[in-house]
């Protein structure tokens, strides 16, 4: 029995801040940062947007794209590291606002940047076992970076929703298999009640990102006996432009394979939405029969790898909701002071 | 706003669910339990509005009420939905973008919150429909 993506939807707020505007405030060299990170600007949420509103917009886009009867959705899982409530699910808000309530299970997921793909895997299990008809898996974040922290240059806002199902005639993309690699690695964390995350600094790349992404990716290719050349496209978690480019090269994928999904230079790191945004951008232009290899990474740490084959159905649904490229068009640029106000870094008594 | 007061209106605010009188074909938002024209002869049913509509009139708020200070200047408008009823809502756009007769569509946003500790009120606002 096949399992896969019935529909997908993405959402990106319309505001952006350029790297040079952040660098100017902290006296950093914008050129070095831009070329080092391979990020030019990042998405900033509006004053009335949070991970829940972004999740709802992405979920509604996914439901619209395939014209799904929302009552068929039997599970809503929202992955985020910026859930608006510490206690009170984001997923119930999403379920209500998409019209999926009340007969469904819902919970919030948290695994740094791969909470969204963990939700995809949970939904794959539920639909494959026959427990539910369709599952809604979302990665949505309004990522936090402390003022002057390196993360401030990339921590962005955006979200992506996948509707996961197992009726072959409905699948826009078949997920052939998934493979995860997980260890207890304290490369990045945020303690309860703290507004900004902490991280292990510049030496966390190797034991965190590269170790987990390469092991998950190699593990999946060994499991299903595929090679990088078997895929038309590849997507790797994109905390910046440099890491996915480097890990693609390490694994034997080409620049052309990762190009359609590499949205981070104009978007920033959307955390739980990051890898899923790359998959969505790739689905926006993939042809039936194309194969996509994707690996998400979450600090803490783990990697989730997926092998995906696009079906004929993609042509039918693709144009029925905004594409990632359309969401990136015509941004409104803001300076650091406006950005600080939008992100609540300036408190009004 | 009290938690139960919002809670009871949550579905209407999230998904623009109002009511429709089958007898006289009138639509109501916010929902009415009784048709004011047909009275007890009326046949009320739930109705989900598409959310498409146009700006009847608007104002730009520069001096905001408590809790909205960080949003100024913002546009507050009366919007006539395609099906008939009018409602007041914020429009997410620059003040110079808005005009009377402008087409709008719904988006899901935070409407407010009960301070740092209280609940967050979500619901529908509108954006220009280009």
From TrEMBL, chain A:
Keywords: Acyltransferase, Isoprene biosynthesis, Transferase. InterPro entries: ACP_syn_III_C, HMG_CoA_Synthase, Thiolase-like. The keyword Transferase applies. Its EC number is 2.3.3.10. Pathway: Metabolic intermediate biosynthesis; (R)-mevalonate biosynthesis; (R)-mevalonate from acetyl-CoA: step 2/3. It is an enzyme of class 2 (transferase). GO terms for biological process: farnesyl diphosphate biosynthetic process, mevalonate pathway; isopentenyl diphosphate biosynthetic process, mevalonate pathway. The keyword Lyase does not apply. SUPFAM superfamilies: Thiolase-like. (3S)-3-hydroxy-3-methylglutaryl-CoA binds at residues 29-30, 113, 154, 204, 237, 246, 269, 299. It catalyses: acetoacetyl-CoA + acetyl-CoA + H2O = (3S)-3-hydroxy-3-methylglutaryl-CoA + CoA + H(+). The active site is at residues 81, 113, 237. One of its GO terms (molecular function) is hydroxymethylglutaryl-CoA synthase activity. CoA binds at residues 202, 242. CDD domains: init_cond_enzymes (cd00827). Residues 222-302 form the Beta-ketoacyl-[acyl-carrier-protein] synthase III C-terminal domain. Catalyzes the condensation of acetyl-CoA with acetoacetyl-CoA to form 3-hydroxy-3-methylglutaryl-CoA (HMG-CoA). Functions in the mevalonate (MVA) pathway leading to isopentenyl diphosphate (IPP), a key precursor for the biosynthesis of isoprenoid compounds that are building blocks of archaeal membrane lipids. Belongs to the thiolase-like superfamily. Archaeal HMG-CoA synthase family. Interacts with acetoacetyl-CoA thiolase that catalyzes the precedent step in the pathway and with a DUF35 protein. The acetoacetyl-CoA thiolase/HMG-CoA synthase complex channels the intermediate via a fused CoA-binding site, which allows for efficient coupling of the endergonic thiolase reaction with the exergonic HMGCS reaction. This is Hydroxymethylglutaryl-CoA synthase.
Automatic annotation (TrEMBL), chain B:
It holds the Pfam family OB_ChsH2_C. This is Transcriptional regulator. Residues 11-41 form the ChsH2 rubredoxin-like zinc ribbon domain. It comes from Methanolobus profundi. Residues 49-109 form the ChsH2 C-terminal OB-fold domain. PANTHER family: BLR3430 PROTEIN (PTHR34075:SF5).
């Amino acid at each position: 029995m096949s399992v896969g993506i019935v529909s997908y939807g993405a959402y990106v707020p319309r505001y952006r801040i350029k790297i040079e505007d952040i660098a100017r405030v902290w006296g950093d060299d914008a050129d070095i940062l831009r070329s080092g990170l391979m990020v030019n600007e990042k998405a900033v949420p509006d004053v009335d947007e949070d991970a829940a509103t972004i999740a709802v917009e992405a979920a509604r886009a996914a439901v619209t794209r395939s014209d799904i009867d929302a009552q068929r959705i039997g599970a809503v899982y929202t992955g985020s590291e910026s859930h608006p409530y510490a206690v009170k699910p984001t997923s119930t808000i999403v379920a209500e606002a998409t019209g999926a309530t009340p007969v469904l299970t819902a919970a919030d997921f948290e695994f740094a940047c791969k909470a969204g793909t963990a939700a995809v895997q949970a939904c794959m299990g539920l639909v494959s076992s026959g427990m539910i008809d369709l599952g809604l898996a979302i990665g949505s974040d309004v990522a936090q970076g402390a003022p002057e922290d390196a993360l401030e240059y990339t921590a962005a806002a955006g979200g992506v929703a996948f509707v996961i199902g197992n009726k072959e005639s409905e699948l826009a993309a078949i997920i052939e298999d998934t493979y995860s690699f997980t260890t207890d690695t304290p490369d990045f964390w945020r303690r309860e009640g703290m507004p900004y995350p902490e991280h292990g600094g510049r030496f966390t790349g190797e034991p965190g990102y590269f170790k987990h992404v390469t092991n998950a990716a190699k593990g999946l290719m060994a499991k299903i006996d595929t090679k990088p050349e078997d895929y038309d496209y590849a997507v790797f978690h994109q905390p910046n432009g440099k890491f996915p480019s480097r890990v693609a090269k390490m694994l034997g994928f080409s620049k052309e394979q990762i190009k359609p999904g590499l949205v981070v230079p104009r978007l920033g790191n959307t955390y739980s939405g990051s890898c899923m945004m790359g998959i969505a951008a790739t689905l926006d232009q993939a042809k039936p029969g194309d194969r996509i290899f994707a690996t998400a990474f979450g600090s803490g740490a783990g990697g989730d790898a997926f092998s995906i084959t696009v079906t004929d159905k993609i042509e039918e649904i693709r144009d029925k909701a905004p594409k990632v490229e359309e969401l990136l068009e015509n941004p409104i640029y803001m300076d650091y002071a406006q950005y600080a106000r939008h992100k609540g870094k300036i408190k009004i008594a | 706003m009290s938690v139960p007061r919002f809670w009871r209106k949550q579905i209407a605010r999230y998904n623009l669910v109002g009511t429709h009188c089958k007898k006289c074909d009138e639509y109501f938002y916010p929902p009415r339990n009784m048709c004011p024209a047909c009275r007890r002869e009326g046949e009320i049913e739930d109705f989900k509005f598409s959310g498409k509509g146009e700006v009847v009139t608007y104002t730009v708020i520069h001096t905001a009420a408590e809790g909205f200070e960080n949003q100024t200047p913002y546009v507050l408008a009366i919007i006539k939905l395609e099906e008939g009823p009018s409602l007041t809502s914020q429009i997410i756009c620059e003040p110079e973008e808005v005009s009377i007769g402008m087409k709008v569509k719904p988006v899901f946003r935070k409407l407010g919150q009960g301070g740092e500790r209280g609940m967050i009120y979500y619901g529908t606002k509108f954006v220009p429909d280009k």
